[in-house]
């Protein structure tokens, strides 16, 4: 089943949730251009370099975001397969675009939606704006990352789509994945879709790349949580879906 989205929906959301950055960048760019052409600024070469860097940062982030969130197959969720009557957990960080898509892709699945957003721990302003613009799913459960309210092996699969990086503290993140490991059946898989802190995403988001975690950080988190990686799926050069499974020692 093809998932249809409005043209530019992803890019518009990116701008809407991060508008202070784009507003400051555009004002700074305009001010620099005015200084360069309409004043006797003493260091025109430095100003020109600043304009070029800022122009690149703006255009690259917008164009690549449009490619990822509007043109790519990210939201087709090709890695999802309907296996009949299953119980599946999906967790988000306060902004949930994918639960309805999962419902459509897996119509026979019992989907449990959890929201781990905690404004005291997860302080990213863009998440607050997204949450205000799009309230949580009515069926969503508010949870704590360090103690999921489910019994061991309650779910056949678990999904964390563009959300787990919001758990900034490493100890909390490891505990969160220990909990995901515990509540997912030993025979089941956990899917984690993320940008990585790598050179490709640096080209796309410049200093914004440091909001993401490196591949090595994710591998260390999984290992500490008793999980091993079965596959890494590249949806685009900028996104990785880790497919992990527990070793059976935490249940």
Automatic annotation (TrEMBL):
Q: Which Gene3D superfamilies match?
A: Vaccinia Virus protein VP39
Could you confirm whether the keyword Transferase appears in this record?
Answer: no
* GO molecular-function terms, A-Z: S-adenosylmethionine-dependent methyltransferase activity
Which UniProt keywords are given for this protein, alphabetically ordered?
Answer: Membrane, Transmembrane, Transmembrane helix
**Which regions span the lipid bilayer?**
21-39, 45-69
Q: Where is the signal peptide?
A: none
Positions of the Methyltransferase type domain:
126-192
> What protein does this entry describe?
Methyltransferase type 11 domain-containing protein
Q: Which organism is it from?
A: Sphingobacterium deserti
């Amino acid at each position: 089943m093809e998932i249809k989205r409005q043209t530019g929906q992803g890019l518009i959301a990116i701008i809407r949730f991060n508008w202070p950055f784009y507003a400051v960048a555009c004002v700074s760019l305009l001010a620099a251009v005015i200084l360069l052409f309409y004043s006797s600024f003493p260091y025109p070469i430095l100003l020109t370099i600043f304009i070029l860097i800022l122009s690149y940062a703006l255009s690259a982030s917008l164009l690549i975001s449009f490619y990822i969130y509007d043109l790519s197959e990210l939201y087709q969720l090709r890695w999802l397969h309907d296996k009949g009557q299953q119980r599946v957990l999906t967790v988000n960080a306060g902004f949930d675009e994918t639960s309805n898509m999962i419902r459509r892709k897996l119509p026979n699945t019992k989907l449990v939606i959890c929201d781990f957003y905690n404004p005291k721990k997860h302080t990213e302003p863009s998440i607050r704006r997204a949450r205000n613009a799009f309230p949580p799913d009515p069926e969503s459960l508010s949870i704590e990352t360090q103690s999921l309210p489910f019994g061991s092996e309650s779910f056949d699969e678990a999904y964390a789509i563009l959300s787990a990086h919001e758990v900034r503290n490493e100890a909390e993140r490891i505990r969160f994945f220990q909990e995901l490991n515990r509540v997912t059946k030993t025979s089941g898989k956990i899917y984690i879709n993320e940008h990585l802190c790598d050179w490709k995403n640096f080209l796309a988001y410049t200093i914004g790349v440091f909001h993401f975690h490196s591949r090595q950080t994710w591998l260390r988190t999984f290992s500490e949580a008793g999980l091993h990686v079965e596959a890494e799926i590249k949806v685009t050069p900028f996104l990785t879906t880790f497919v992990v499974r527990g070793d059976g020692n935490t249940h």
